[in-house]
Amino acid sequence: MIHFYKRIMMSNNMENVNPHSIKLVARQVQTLVHEKMEGINLLLNEDDLTDIQAVIDGPPSTPYHGGQFKVKLALSKDFPASAPKGFFLTKIFHPNVGPSGEICVNTLKKDWKPDLGIKHILLTIKCLLIVPNPESALNEEAGKLLLEQYDTYFSRAKLYTEVHASVKSTCSKSESSRKRTDATDPGAGSVAKEDKKGKIMSKEMK
Q: Which residues carry out catalysis?
């Protein structure tokens, strides 16, 4: 824990953060690393502890089931006196998620209390996938469909999940990116040509 804290203090990104806040966040993060939350995987960034990210599994019986959603908590300089801001980095169709991924939930606004920790915030966001709140919608279309045409809302949200958040789509994007890299790598072609040339020369010598 002491070694972890020293590394955090040496980071340039943390130099303007209240030392008390750093200690508090470091303690909470270390606890979460060892105490796994069901359906939530914390992504630790030791270079900037104010940038907390996690991957949340879509809960069963929701249109988000089968998806993995990356979220980000941007902690304020005076955390926990003021609430952090929450964002979905994975595109999602949800009443309480705005066009830029910003999350609207009372826990991060009027209901915020300094004794609420990072674990509570992440669990609240996960619960938001189970029980959306159309009354504080940032996505008005999603909120309206949830109230008036639930089947349409469910289908749209499920489609977004399959396209943007499914494990299969994530792997496909990574594979496509790798193929594009290989195709644009001039060294790959040179190696292939050299190999072919070597085989021809070897055949002539025989």
A: 104
The tens place of each residue's pLDDT in the chain, 206 residues long, gives 444 455 544 444 455 567 778 888 888 988 888 888 999 999 978 777 777 999 999 999 999 999 999 999 988 878 899 999 999 999 999 999 999 999 999 999 999 999 999 999 999 999 999 999 999 899 999 999 999 999 999 999 999 999 999 986 555 554 544 444 454 454 544 444 444 444 444 444 44
Find all residues with CB under 8 Å of 29, minimum gap 6, and list them. Answer: 42, 44, 49, 52, 118
Q: How many CB atoms lie within 10 A of CB 141?
A: 12
First to last CA, the chain: 66
Name 88's bridge partners: 71
Place of tokens 């826990």: 107
pTM listed for this prediction? 0.75
Tokens describing residue 184: 């644009």
